[in-house]
């Protein structure tokens, strides 16, 4: 009885975000194997004989054949395009060391500048002027065009004690119910 070929291997890990026009190679561990593939856009399998160029989000299904082995199992590889955009920093009168930065979709923003402004406390970078979508160094880029991000500031004299909770605290919420009124107690525990 013939032994089954091992599945076809791709040069890029499946479910990866890749740049447009990147080259993808398919491999079989057995010499003289013939590799077949199709994409989510085609119905027929084709013989693989040169690297595939990824130009859009794609699913590639592939298998290998060999005269001395049973066909390998089908295996699918999925790739998503990652795009590069420029974010421009609007510091609203603050001083910053960089004015813009290139970012790639589905990756972290990475180090963002820390602006300063006399008599104001910096509260973060936001994707809108309503300050409702905060981004940080760890946020995943999910934009579809070049974008301006906005610095949020509060004046030192208006600093709200409740707004300045440090990041080194953890929160435990305990709910008490009395008739229709709900009391919420907040306990701060040093981490």
In short:
The protein is an all-beta fold and 191 residues long.
Task: Write a structural description.
It is a single chain. With 191 residues, this protein is mainly β. The protein has strands at residues 9-10, 16-18, 22-24, 26-27, 34-39, 46-47, 52-54, 58-65, 75-81, 84-90, 100-104, 120-126, 134-135, 147-155, 169-178, 181-190. A five-stranded mixed β-sheet has the order 2-9-8-5-6, with no helix packed on it. The chain has a five-stranded mixed β-sheet with strand order 11-10-14-12-13, with no helix packed on it. The protein has a two-stranded antiparallel ribbon with strand order 1-4. A hairpin with a 7-residue loop joins β12 and β13 (134-135). It is rod-shaped and about 85 Å long.
Salient structural properties:
191 residues; mainly beta; five-stranded mixed sheet; 16 strands; 0% helix; disordered C terminus
Given as residue ranges, the uncertain stretches (5+ residues, pLDDT < 50) are 163-191
Order of helices and strands: EEEEEEEEEEEEEEEE
Strand content: over 45%
Task: Count every helix, treating DSSP H or I runs of 4 or more residues as helices.
Answer: 0
Amino- and carboxy-terminal Cα gap? 62 Å
Radius of gyration: 27 Å
Shape, per Cα inertia axes:
rod-shaped
What is the mean pLDDT?
86
Beta-strand segment tally: 16
Strand order, sheet with most strands: 2-9-8-5-6
- Tell me about the largest β-sheet: 5 strands, mixed
Give the structural class: mainly beta
Approximate helicity band: under 10%
